[in-house]
Amino acid sequence: MVRVQLSGTKETMLATLWGRALDSRSARPVLGDTAADEAIGRLDYDFGKLMKPSMALSVALRAKSIDTWAREALAANPGASVLHLGCGLDTRVFRIDPPPDSRWFDVDFPEIAELRHQLWPELDERENYRVLATSVTDWAWLEEVPADRPVVVVAEGLTMYLRDAEAEGLFRRVVERFPSGEFVFDIFSKLGIKAQKMNPVVRKSGSTLYWGLDDSRELEKFGLELVDEHFAQQFASEEDLPKLPLVPRLQLAALRWVPAVNRMGRIVRCRF
């Protein structure tokens, strides 16, 4: 067993790992992330302390929506470098399984990188795969990624933990360094930031959220072009809706009548 001692923002990744694992155990999984389930069996940690099992479905739906757009972005940018920022213990590289001509960089703190190594040592041998053990906002890591090809930047559960200057710095630095590419990431509205303590994972981990945006078109000032966005009600695809239990389906349908809540969290796809 691998003992885990994390707190604050770093601890939140354990809740989403558990959510993906619980989804994989269901009779009709949305994401089917069996690697996540295998990982929690090797970790010495009380997974139930941050998140209720009922939240697992929303975790899986968000992850699958991001995966879908990330695959599309890779298809539109053959041979691109993938920058998976704030990767935590996400097994996205397994789920997407990028083509061999793509480079994949998982970026997160050194202690997270070490956990990934202990859980999935086979990744050390994966061709064109590398973990950059650093904070995303320590911009020196960008120099380790060759700028000779387009990039696909994927981030889940990251942007809301950035401060305003850090979010702007991230977008501007990537746009300035690489010839072209796409971003796929989730983002909170300003109401979502104000209501952050209603999120048990944020509250119980002692984390703080900072950056939110009400209008995704504001990203244009950082050199990005908005391609599409999905609000909470759209996280479940037409393919996945029949898999959902009745109550979650009704809850998603009800979001259309509460637009402020529906828009609190969204997934954005941009290009430059």
Automatic annotation (TrEMBL):
Write down what this protein is called: O-methyltransferase involved in polyketide biosynthesis
Organism the protein comes from: Amycolatopsis magusensis
Q: Which InterPro entries match?
A: Ppm1/Ppm2/Tcmp, SAM-dependent_MTases_sf, TcmP-like
Q: Which Pfam families match?
A: LCM
Which PANTHER family does the protein's record reference? S-ADENOSYL-L-METHIONINE-DEPENDENT METHYLTRANSFERASE YKTD-RELATED, S-ADENOSYL-L-METHIONINE-DEPENDENT METHYLTRANSFERASES SUPERFAMILY PROTEIN
| Family matches, as SUPFAM superfamilies | S-adenosyl-L-methionine-dependent methyltransferases
Instruction: List UniProt keywords, sorted A-Z.
Output: Methyltransferase, Transferase
Coiled-coil ranges (or none): none
